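Consider what follows.

. . .
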Amino acid sequence: MTDEQIPRRVEPSWVSEGASAHDLTLVENWLIRLRRERFRSRKSGRIHDYYVAQTPDAVHVVAITPDQKVVMVRQFRAGSRSDELETPGGLLEQNEDACAAGARELLEETGYAGDPPQFLGPLWPNPGLLTTRIMTVVIRNAQQIADPQPDPTEELTIELIQAREIPKLIRTGHIAHAACVAGLLWWIYLEDPDQVNPGCQKHNQSDRPDRSEQSDRSSNF
């Protein structure tokens, strides 16, 4: 598909109803604002209340060392109730540039730094519920230059994964954070498109990792 064939964004098919007069904030704290927002269909005129979580934008960093290893972190995630293997990242500060934020988060979480970040682009991880966009940046020639300085509630384990192993870990569910998966596949496609779709391969539930044995997974890398 050429750039000319890519569908262009059009005007939204639903619009805010009554100049947002019916909208209501239900919950608000330092991280999230949960809103009930009313929209009207341009086509049918139907009115519907949507629930939208307004949260800050975030950045994920695909950091590659000179010997072609990807710098990743493992940390607990309350949503999945398990420790997830992820690319380093975090929330953007107000008006912060995504590349600067990516370099900052990489250094804070892992102590690694490298070449100037390459911005790949934004993704909407769940546009049906979240206002959040996830920015993906790539930092090559990453090397550890300092001790990690994570947030007080972050308990991170740094893991260096061979780049060639990333597609397998995604396919088998060892890397399951959707935004991280999307960013890694984006990077892999730019580096080597053949790795993204090497051909149809059958898989089933038995290919999924046993979450109860997560602590043993790193020994297989």
Helices lie at 98-110, 166-171, 178-191, 193-196. The two ends are 36 Å apart (CA to CA). Confidence is low (pLDDT under 50) at residues 198-208, 212-221. The longest strand covers residues 33-41.
